[in-house]
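Page 42, continued from yesterday. The earlier attempt failed because a stray header line got pasted into the input along with the sequence. Redoing it now with the clean sequence only.
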Amino acid sequence: MTTATHPNSAPARASLAIVLVSLGLALFCAAPAFACSVFAITASDTTVLGQNLDLDTPLPGLVVVNPRGIEKTILPWEGEGPVPYEGEVPSWTSIWASVTFTCWGRDFIEGGMNEAGLMIDQANLTAVYPERDGRPGVSPAQWMQYQLDNFATVDEVLEHLDDLRLDGAE
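This time it went through. Structure tokens are written below.
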């Protein structure tokens, strides 16, 4: 024979209290995670993209319109910042115009989209970068702008992954 516990009984209230206290401890005692999210929602022929930028220090942002036909050169980069480099650094002229979002300044972007429809974004958590190989490194922020400046499709980006050596803080 089974017995049902009434929702207002002492055992039911005790169980509910344990669950609520456990949830509260999990929410308030957990270490904060500074990871970002990127999502896309598609309905019919429309896609809406969204992203959050979770940083421990709030930064102001700026939307930048980048015209095509601009000559650019990478800023050699290692780990967390620019470094001196004595060799020749890669340069290019932007093929595509784009609209980007940045916290750091023009060409060092958090994400954006070019006029061909290529969209790029980042989500910060952890990363492993390629081994240093004699080529100057490029920051992830400038690497993304390079992709928007030069390519129209994801397939084109994949074909050119070795054009620049990505470098950043791990």
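Notes: The first strand starts at residue 37 and ends at 43.
Reminder to self: strip header lines before submitting.
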